[in-house]
Predict the 3D structure of the following.
Amino acid sequence: MTCMYIIYTCMYMFEQSFARYLGLFGDHVVPAVLYRYTQVLRREDLVNSKGKPLLTNARLEAVWKRLADRFATVVADTSMITLSPEYAAHFHDIYIDGKECAKMTGDRMKMLMLTLPFMVRDLIAPEVHYVHVCA
């Protein structure tokens, strides 16, 4: 009886810490990554002669649309997991559109943790090239 109690207590503690970890990633890490990319693309030195940013809001929205589209292209043949277009739309709703009522489940958050570092690689390359051409 005592051994089972200890095992269940440890499992409960693990589940609580795992839920905190998922919450930390979803509530702080992902928004921080998106904020950092926005800050890089909206630096003060990247303005035109009129003082407006070289990258308009439409181009910035295109970056986030491209990120969501990348999530939709994850297939099991190359990454051993498959993400659906619905997942990509859900990600866009939560993190780009900022819908507070939408949340990700633990399994969806785990998939995001696994794929996000690979999805943001070279994400802003077209915009960086555009800035170099315009500058």
The first helix runs from residue 2 to 41. The two ends are 72 Å apart (CA to CA).
